[in-house]
Amino acid sequence: MDNLDKKPILTDSYLLKPECISSEYETNHYFPFKNESLKFISTTQNVLGGLYFSLDSDHYISCINGDVLFVIIDLKIDSPTYLKSSLLKLTSKEPCYIFIPKLHAYGYFSIKNSLLFISNYTNDHLGLNILDESLNLKFSNFIMSDKDRKNPSLNEIRSLLNTSYTNGLNQFDKTVLITGGAGFIGSHVAILLTKRYPNYKVIVLDKLEECSNINNLNEIRNLKNFLFIKGDICDFEANKKIFQKYKFDYVIHFAAQTHVDISLIEPLIFTKTNVLGTHNLLECSRLNGIEKFVHVSTDEVYGTTDKIPNINQPLEPTNPYACSKLAAENIIKAYQKCYKIPIVITRGNNAYGPHQYVEKVIPKFINRLLENKKCCIHKNCYDSERDFMYVTDMAEAFDLVLHKGVPGEFYNIGASNSVNIVELAKKLIVLMGKAKEGEENEYIEVVKGRLLNDERYRIDSSKLIELGWEQKISFDDGLVRTIEWYKANQNYWDKWDIVIDQFCDKLN
């Protein structure tokens, strides 16, 4: 094995560390992928197993006992690492799972007697001759079964691989790109579209910064019509490759810097991501052609107002975040007029629900109360009001805008749930059983004011309702659901970085 590349360099494979469940007597490693058919393989010291691959199924492999050298070879046509290999050592002392995508061959060499398991194992595994010179693998001092020695060469199965790859690209009616799809709202939209439209290929592009979490996509990450790409919308050359490779029909653009307080401290970051990043995506769309581009803006472009603004309301943003979103809207208008790109713009108000990062007001209050701490309210926010929409209702709105929204139009996405921030805190305090009604102030603390605060954001969503949207989850029901989710996932944001580097696909 002396000339194998000994770094995990392949485009689609990645490592995943398990969670540990310890007791007084032993530590078990919890396999996180449910409803998977498992195959256990006993290996013998100095015995070489493989190569094997699947045309249709992805797999996870781990070493339960012993030590194994594990080789992966990329057989995916047009992959940046096509026919390149990676060698990793698996040991039960430091357990991890290796993700093996379809069209990737794998084999193993036992350093000592070992036990492996393969998830999602099916009978469609095909053999490949590990001694094939075109694979450029050099082995010595090993034992191999007669079955493995008789596996076909790469040349014998090349047409099968080519056909499978081509069919994989062409089996879907539409291909959808969701930028920022590992974030809060984006992940719910990705889940909805992937499950509702099995004839769509849904591809999420996300940089995986602090407000994103790959675990937000657990429901769909093993589905055949879903793919994740780790990437940055500010990297134009990488974006151009992605657009050329996947030929998107639809783009839904969530990726953005969104925290108002941070925008007041580091405004240039917001200009780079929200303006330049959006411009990059528009240019890629222009160069490759798309059916529809849905741009996710914000109700904050309206500024604070006592009136309920419709889409014709004058725009008066009051902070660098809102200004960066309005700047992106203006570039969009230019691309609509000059290049006739079919673009729809949404302006949404506050969403809440599962997957939301803990910096936002509702999860922040819930998590503080779970820790038996007080809800901190800024002095100049005491009279602030916000409208809140449960996140699945918002995901339904984006599905509707994607399919029925008219290019060139704006759609406000908001609910009529206007609530004072103090009243919000009191609702949560009572719902979580911290105090009775009338005694909530025991769990409220007033702290120094924010650098800047808009009193209220309210919007008129009549155009969205005309498309057929309706609110299904009431504010109180949504709060109960959200509380239960955060109770069940109190360490959710502490563990997301167990996924090492990329999740599925990374373009060099």
UniProtKB/TrEMBL annotation:
A GO molecular-function descriptor: dTDP-glucose 4,6-dehydratase activity
Gene Ontology BP terms: nucleotide-sugar metabolic process
Reported cofactor(s): NAD(+)
UniProt keyword list: Lyase, NAD
EC number(s) from the headed UniProt entry: 4.2.1.46
Coiled-coil intervals, chain numbering: none
Classification via Pfam families: dTDP_sugar_isom (PF00908), GDP_Man_Dehyd (PF16363)
Domain named NAD(P)-binding: residues: 177-479
Lyase found in the keyword field: yes
Family stated for the protein in its record: Belongs to the NAD(P)-dependent epimerase/dehydratase family. dTDP-glucose dehydratase subfamily.
Protein name as catalogued: dTDP-D-glucose 4,6-dehydratase
Species name: Brachionus calyciflorus
The organism's taxonomic lineage, starting at the top: Eukaryota, Metazoa, Spiralia, Gnathifera, Rotifera
